Amino acid sequence: MTDDGTTTAAATGTLGYEQARDELIEVVRRLEAGGTSLEDSLALWERGEELAKVCRHWLEGARARLDAALAKPADREDGTGDAAADAG
Q1: Which of 34, 35, 44, 85 is most buried, by the most CB atoms less than 10 A from its CB?
Q2: Residue 23: which residues within 8 A CB-CB, separation 6 or more?
């Protein structure tokens, strides 16, 4: 953990989904295990919140891409779609 919120936010912004998820799992494990000071527990909690936001961002982006991909065939009802797809 860092005391500089800017550094932490910048580091979090570069994480991929799997990296953020794996680190979040570790944060939760450490919180559930207990034995940390209140200050350390709060720092872990804050890091977990940041990581959860990163995961949500990636998942929302994936959902938007999936929705866009699924919507494309429906948007082609005006006859501009693929001829092979229209024949099927």
Answers
A1: 44
A2: 15, 47, 51
From the list 64, 68, 32, the residue with the least C-alpha distance to 48 is 32
Which residue in this structure is represented by tokens 């024949």?
87
The secondary element (H helix, E strand) that includes residue 9 is: helix 5-13
Q: What is the CA radius of gyration of the chain?
A: 21
Judge whether 20 and 48 are in contact, CB under 8 Å: no
Task: Label residue 27 exposed, middle or buried (CB < 10 Å: 0-12, 13-18, 19+).
Answer: buried
* 8-26 per-position pLDDT tens digit: 555 666 899 999 999 999 9
